[in-house]
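User: I'm new to structure prediction. If I give you an amino acid sequence, what do you actually give back? Let's try with this one:
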Amino acid sequence: MNITISGLLIPFLGTMLGSGCVFFMKREMNDSIQRALLGFAAGVMIAASVWSLLIPAMDMSEQMGRLAFLPALAGFSLGVAFLFLLDKITPHLHAMAKMPEGPKAGVNKISRTMMLVFAVTLHNIPEGMAVGVVFASFLNGGTISSADAVALSLGIAIQNFPEGAIISMPLRSEGNSKLKSFCYGTLSGAVEPVAAIVTILLTSLILPFLPYLLAFAAGAMVYVVVEELLPEASREEKTDICTIGFALGFALMMVLDVALG
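Assistant: Good question. You get back a string of structure tokens that encode the predicted 3D arrangement of the chain. For your 261 residues, that looks like this:
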């Protein structure tokens, strides 16, 4: 049980530590550091999606023989579709960060801050579900071990660190206090343990659908990487630092998943 509780809180800790960067850095994050962190986070999430979510989803469906890929394919497609619709409803993070303040600066600043936190919170729900799904499988004697579940939690925490920093730093640059920026950044990750706990509590209902849910989480995370992280990290054709960060993140998550599993 201690492993489960720790595993559920690790991703939230990653967001909190990342948001804490606002206390030690200038108002704006160095562009190269931001690109490297985004690329690193993207590599971590792609590796986690493959080793911790898609492969276990297909392993759970091995009784289907050569059609074992179908639940993973269906779940993955639904995850991508879900985030696609979500992005149509909520503005993109980088677009919100560049919104002009206009004549009513106070109103726009509050609106922009709330929209930013709201959008990130929505994007964090699938990640919380992913953690909840893998721990639900572990607790019910599935194919996922405690080490596999912890590896995914660590991977998401690593991804959440730069995300927390990338949220809190723009909020600080808008004129918010360091403490307020930290709190908003931290709160954006609070939904993850909540979503994970709700998922575990619904284990009896979701157990038959675990392969689909694992793949759903993978699709959602891959969509965030392709739609948000990589374009922001490689804008203006400055791709070198992003590529290096991606490779390091992918390699680290691959090692963590295989070594701990």
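You can read the tokens as a compact description of the fold. Here is one thing that stands out. The radius of gyration is 18 Å.
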